[in-house]
Amino acid sequence: MTQAASPQRAAPAWRGAGFRIFSSAGDAPRARRPTDGVLLALTIVGVALLSIPAPGPTALDRSFSAFISELPGLMGWFWEISFNLLLGWALLLLVLALVSHGRKRLFFEEVFAMGLAFGCALLAGKAGGTDWSSSVRVIGSTSPPAVYLAVRLAMATAVVVMASPHMSRPVRTIGRLVLAIGGFAGIALGVTLPIGMVAGFLVGVGSAAVVHLILGSPAGRLTLDQIAAALRDLGIGATDLRNAPLEPRGVQLALAAMPDGRSLMVKVYGRDAHEGQLLTSLWNSVWHRGETPRLASSRLEQVEHEAFVTLLADREGVPVMPVVVAGLAVEHDALLVTEATGRAFVTLTPEEIDDALLQGLWRAVVRLGELGIAHGQIDGYRLVVRPDGTPAIGDFSLARVAATDVAVMADRAQLLVTTALSIGHDRAVLAATEALGHDGLVRMLPLLQPAVLDRAARRAVKAGEWSLPDLLKRSAEGAGVEPPELERIRRVTVKSVLTVVLVGAFAYWLIASLSGIDLQQVIDELKSAEMVWLAAALLVAPVVQVFQAFSTMGASVHPMRFGPVLMLQYAIQFIQLAVPSSAARVALEVRFFERAGVDAGGSLSIGLIDAVSGFAIQLLIIVVVTVFGLASISLSSSSTSSSSTSSGSSSSGVDTWVLVVALLVLGAIVAFAVPKSRAAIKDAVPRYRATLRRQASSAVTALRVLRDPKNVGLLFGGNLMAQVLLAIVLGLCLRAFGYTTSFAGLILVNTFVSLFAGFMPVPGGMGVAEAGYTAGLQALGIPSAAAMSTAIAFRLVTFYLPPIWGTFAMRWLRRNSYV
Length: 819
Prior knowledge:
Blueprint: E1 15-16, E2 19-20, E3 30-31, H1 34-50, H2 59-69, H3 76-99, H4 104-127, H5 132-140, H6 151-163, H7 169-188, H8 194-215, E4 217-218, H9 224-233, E5 239-243, E6 252-257, E7 263-269, H10 278-287, H11 299-315, E8 323-328, E9 334-339, E10 343-344, H12 355-370, E11 383-385, E12 391-393, H13 405-423, H14 425-444, H15 455-463, H16 468-479, H17 494-515, H18 519-527, H19 531-540, H20 544-554, H21 562-575, H22 581-595, H23 600-627, H24 653-673, H25 675-694, H26 696-702, H27 709-736, H28 743-757, H29 768-779, H30 784-800, H31 802-815
Antiparallel strand pairs: 1-2, 3-4, 5-6, 6-7, 7-9, 8-9, 10-11, 11-12
Helix pairs in contact: 1-8, 1-19, 2-7, 3-4, 3-6, 3-7, 4-6, 4-8, 6-7, 6-8, 7-8, 12-13, 12-14, 13-14, 14-16, 18-30, 19-27, 20-21, 20-27, 21-22, 21-31, 22-23, 23-26, 23-27, 23-28, 24-25, 24-29, 27-28, 27-30, 28-29, 29-30
């Protein structure tokens, strides 16, 4: 159902003197957004981590509090007003919702968010060592003593963030400034500490996210009356406005008519659109990469970019939908208006699609590639057939100039899939062969993969009578070549899982025997563990793969969507049960990137670049920590403890390090002593040497990532953050058994063990890793039983449990044909 603009009806959003209070109508459609789920997960992890040093004060708390208190020119009255303004602004938002027509639901949602934040803040404060009465007192207090956590800030943040999607951008900005200054004011007044301020803010954000996930939130899009007013600002007197049937994320589309009978497509980047906010735009840009507008610095930039590429293509003879006007309206909403005369290709029947139309479409897309322009989303909605039967291309929002050859070939693959969905793959392949020729069709074959298609196209292919492998096979037959082979990966079997169990049992028996650790003592330690810390470790552990996904994206010169790459990292956690982790990572990544259209040499290079960069980061961490004396480990002294332990339970770190070396040597001996294993190694070396020679050119292309600062930052920054997070998880596991040590020491132990365990020819470095963590923690002064218990717990949350969710990730990749 469409909604027509009515000049007599007032705009539902408040609009007066150039200022809007609400972003959208009170009855605007709502949706549950994945960014709220991400915010909730981040806040849970953040509050869990802050509970470690709570209630404080830490050295950082003291330094930062002193700095805030000594800021020149800011007297106590300023801080008191700023701190009281937290509740004042929250109250104002409540009143606005209560007295505004059609906003009663928003009022109750704000109250719900505030109450939820109050309850969660009390619980988090209690977990951090603050009693209930102190947490309640600090809501109305503006004087010391400092309390963990800032309950007033949590409640105000919940209301501001909850109302944010409903409010216009200026109101949102004011609210965020009030929260920021009010948080600093609480520190300056001595009401809370920096860690309490951060924890309070996180609790408020998390509470608002819960409400958004339960009840949904509006997108903040313009009403049709507001769009009509914006068009008048740009000199367009359009009529018959109605919402378009298809809207991409972050953009509002409307159809309109000109007095001369021309149809218009109006694309609106609203000032107050929820999708335009930084976090949401960033989420859409990485998760839906290639399906949504890129993250730009302004709304106007996105409009200018699309208008520029459209005009450039039009000047060079590519049939496009002409630009009518582009610019900013009075309310600072960015608009791009193009002609929309004609029918979308997807609405045509096979009988209406003749050979002349097909060749016209192919000429247009090929011409774009010759100009170095990649459209990025060739589908049945962007391809238009004019009334005279000639084709045109619309929506250049994802287009790129100076595009890579892969991006150009992806456009052609998308066109082949789009035409095949309408007329069948036989006729579509014939038209592609006539337009591209033998060589052009062969170059396009590797791009006939799900990764180059958007979500709608993938769903259409699944629902069709043929599959992408069918289309690939038919296209290869048309070109007279064999379909490109994909890298084979080793599957997880019952036998491989049983092997893991037996190897693990033997490894733990061997470690306990050689290290002189009483297994009963280890069992007692495990029983006495504080489960809240182990739960926190289990929550933080999956975040490691988020940064590994960024590293993998940085290793590729080809743009990849973040979502599938993240699923790849979780799937690696599953596949490493069958093969050593480094081999699993390379094999699965090669298969993944081949599915994305990268040739075999480039795929192998991307996997190796990712693995080598991780190796380099590990070496760099070890060198920095040891050279600068940030941490040191003693291999000569026995483990000692600040707590009492049973006599004779501690053992020398030297014994365990000897055990690590013995296991390394044993693994190498087994690998070369077993005839089958030795023969496999001998056969593999020349084969891989020959393969690398053949794929040298592709490897050189893949190494171009090292010339791009952004890719280098993703590559090395992702691996660095992954190591840091693993050290945090190790520290959380250690805390569960009542011990702490320096963070630098944890990084050194984790990095050193990860580095050498990766070389072992056993799945996940089983046995070696456990022995290494036990020895490393002993060398940092942790008693033997606690060290081994920590090693077991750490390996449980980072190696043995992740295959559970890795199984679902692997199924998702296979179901969507990514591996």
